[in-house]
Design goal:
Blueprint (H helix, E strand, L loop, with lengths): L1 E8 L3 H12 L1 H8 L1 E9 L14 E2 L2 H5 L4 E6 L7 H10 L3 E4 L2 H18 L3 E2 L10 H8 L5 E7 L2 H13 L3 H10 L8 H4 L2 H15 L9 E2 L7 H9 L2 E12 L2 E12 L11 E8 L3 E8 L3 H21 L24 E11 L4 H11 L4 E6 L8 E8 L2 E2 H11 L5 E10 L2
Parallel strand pairs: 1-2, 1-4, 2-3, 4-5, 5-6, 8-10, 10-17
Antiparallel strand pairs: 7-9, 7-11, 9-10, 11-12, 13-15, 13-16, 13-17, 14-15
Helix pairs in contact: 1-12, 4-5, 5-10, 7-8, 13-14
Bound molecules: NADP nicotinamide-adenine-dinucleotide phosphate and L-homoserine.
Length: 429
C-alpha cells in the first residue's frame, strides 16, 4: 500500500466533497488501487470561517503546501484564473503531480500549463473540468483514442439547465431558479459565467482541443447564453413541440470547424430534452465508434468529487508506475484549425416579433424575410398583449444562413409597427 499526501487548494463545494469521499471510501479505494490518499493541508482564503475539520489542517499560505516535501499531489479547487493559474504552474514547476476541476484556467491558460506539465513530466488530471461526474475526458483520451472525432454536442452546464428546467416545469422566475442553483452549489463564484454561456464555452474549448488535436481558445467560440431568455419563449417553443436547452456544439465540416454555444430549440422527441435539472449529456461521434452518449450529474458536490478522485488515483498511479499520460492536452497551435464564423452557419429559426395588432403587419414582416430568401415554415399570432397595443407573433423558418437572419431582423426591427427587439433562437434539427 502506498500513502499519497495531497495538498488541497480550496475547501468550497467541491473541496469538501473530495475530502468527504476520500474519508468515506478509504477502504474501497485502498482495496481497489493500493493507494491510501490523504489530505495533508488545505489552502483557503479565510481562516475564520467555521469548518467541520481541525483548524491545523487549514492555511492561507500556499508556500506551506508547495514546500512540504511529503505532499506529492496538489489538487486545485479554487476556481477562476488567478491565483489558480500561478499555483498550478508553481506546483508543476516544483515537480508535484496536479489535478484541477477548473475549466476557466484550462480554457484560458491551458496551453502554458500543459506545455510545462509535459516538460516537467508530471501528471495533470482535469476530469472534473467538464461534465461534473461524467467521465468525458477519460472517454475522449482513452476509450476513443482510435477514432477521428467528427462532432460533439452537449448540455454541459448544470446551472443553466437547472434554471431552464425549473422555469418551464414549475413556472419559477429566472431569479428564483438561479437562487436555487446557487444554494445547491452548482453556480460558479461569478454566476454570469454560467448564464452568459462562458462556462459552457470553457468546457467546449477543452473538449474541442482533445477532439481535434490542436489547442482551441475559448475566445474562438461563438457564445450566447440564457441571460436574455424569457419564460414566454420557453412556453411558445413547447407549444410548437420544442424544449429550449443551452447547447455546446463542435463539428467538423468540409469548410472548417464549427464551435458554438447557444440556447437551442430541441425537438421534444430528441433524447437531449430528457436531460433535466443539473444533469448534463454529451454526444460524441467518432468515425469508428459512431455515436455515443454520456449522461450524468454535471454539477454539484458529490458527482464532481467523484471525477476529482478518479484523477487523484491516476496521479497516485503515475507516481508509482511513471506511465506516460495517454494523449495529453494538445500543446501547440501549430496545426491551426480553421474555425468558421457563425455568420456562415445554417439553422432553422424561431422568431418572436412584438408588433402592433393591425392588418398588413404580417405582410410587411414576411416581405422583408422574402427579400432575404428566408422561407417561413409556420406562424401564429398569439392574442395576448405583451406591450401596450402589441402582440407576439411567433414564426418558425426553414433552414437559412445566419447572416441573412441578422440582416433581415435588423430591417424588421426598424419597422414602425414593430415595438421591441425581435427574439431569435436557433432550432436544432
Ligand atoms: P467554491 O465553493 O466557491 O469554493 C472555492 C474555495 O476556494 C473556497 O474554499 C475558498 O476559500 C477558496 N478560495 C477562493 N479564492 C481563494 C484564494 N485566492 N486563495 C485561497 N483559497 C481561495 O467553488 P467550487 O464550487 O467548489 O468550485 C471549485 C472549482 O471546481 C472551480 O474551478 C469550479 O469551476 C469547479 N467545478 C465546480 C463544480 C460545482 O458543481 N460546484 C463542478 C465542476 C467543477 P474560503 O472557503 O475561505 O472562501
Ligand atoms: N457552474 C458549473 C455548472 C459547475 O453549472 O455546470 C460544473 O462545472
Amino acid at each position: 500500500m502506498k500513502r499519497v499526501e495531497i495538498g488541497l487548494l480550496g475547501f468550497g463545494t467541491v473541496g469538501q466533497g473530495v475530502f468527504e469521499l476520500l474519508e468515506r471510501q478509504r477502504e474501497i479505494l485502498i482495496k481497489r488501487t493500493g493507494l491510501d490518499l490523504r489530505v495533508k493541508r488545505i489552502l483557503v482564503r479565510d481562516l475564520n470561517k467555521k469548518r467541520p475539520l481541525p483548524k491545523e489542517l487549514f492555511t492561507t499560505n500556499f508556500e506551506e503546501i508547495l514546500n512540504d516535501p511529503e505532499i506529492s499531489v496538489i489538487c486545485e479547487l479554487i476556481g477562476g484564473l488567478e491565483p489558480a493559474r500561478t499555483y498550478l504552474l508553481r506546483a508543476i514547476e516544483s515537480g508535484k503531480q496536479v489535478v484541477t476541476a477548473n475549466k476557466a484556467v484550462l480554457a484560458e491558460a491551458g496551453e502554458e500549463i500543459f506545455r510545462l506539465a509535459k516538460e516537467k513530466g508530471v501528471y495533470l488530471g482535469f476530469e472534473a473540468s467538464v461534465g461534473g461526474g461524467i467521465p468525458v475526458i477519460k472517454t475522449l483520451k482513452e476509450a476513443l483514442v482510435g477514432n477521428r472525432i467528427e462532432s460533439i454536442l452537449g448540455i454541459i452546464n448544470g446551472t443553466t439547465n437547472y434554471i431552464l428546467t425549473r422555469m418551464l416545469e414549475s413556472n419559477l422566475s429566472f431569479e428564483r431558479a438561479l437562487e436555487e442553483a446557487k444554494e445547491r452549489g452548482y453556480a460558479e463564484a461569478d454566476p454570469s459565467l454560467d448564464l452568459k454561456g462562458f462556462d459552457s464555452a470553457h468546457k467546449l474549448a477543452i473538449l474541442a482541443s482533445l477532439a481535434f488535436g490542436s489547442y482551441v481558445s475559448s475566445e474562438k467560440i461563438y457564445v450566447e447564453g440564457i441571460d436574455e431568455i424569457d419564460l414566454m419563449d420557453l412556453k411558445f417553443s413547447r407549444d410548437f413541440g420544442y424544449i429550449v436547452k443551452l447547447v455546446a456544439s463542435a463539428r467538423r465540416t468540409k469548410r472548417g470547424i464549427e464551435l458554438m454555444v447557444f440556447p437551442a430549440l430541441i425537438p421534444e422527441n430528441h433524447i437531449l430534452t430528457s436531460v433535466r435539472l443539473n444533469y448534463n449529456a454529451v454526444y460524441i461521434k467518432g468515425d469508428f465508434v459512431g455515436d455515443i452518449l454520456l449522461y450524468g450529474l454535471g454539477a454539484g458536490k458529490e458527482p464532481t468529487a467523484s471525477a476529482v478522485v478518479s484523477d487523484l488515483v491516476s496521479a497516485g498511479e503515475y507516481l508509482i508506475h511513471k506511465r506516460a499520460p495517454l494523449l495529453s492536452y494538445p500543446q501547440s497551435t501549430s496545426h491551426q484549425l480553421k474555425i468558421l464564423p457563425i455568420s456562415e452557419s445554417l439553422f432553422r429559426y424561431y422568431f418572436r416579433f412584438t408588433a402592433v395588432d393591425r392588418p398588413g403587419v404580417l405582410s410587411k414582416i414576411s416581405g422583408i424575410l422574402g427579400k432575404y430568401d428566408i422561407s417561413i415554415a409556420s406562424v401564429v399570432q398569439i392574442g395576448r398583449q405583451i406591450r401596450k397595443g402589441a402582440v407576439p407573433i411567433v414564426m418558425l423558418t426553414h433552414e437559412t444562413q445566419e447572416k441573412k437572419v441578422v440582416d433581415a431582423l435588423n430591417e424588421i426591427d426598424k419597422l414602425d409597427v414593430v415595438r421591441a427587439k425581435t427574439k431569435r433562437l436557433r432550432i436544432l434539427t
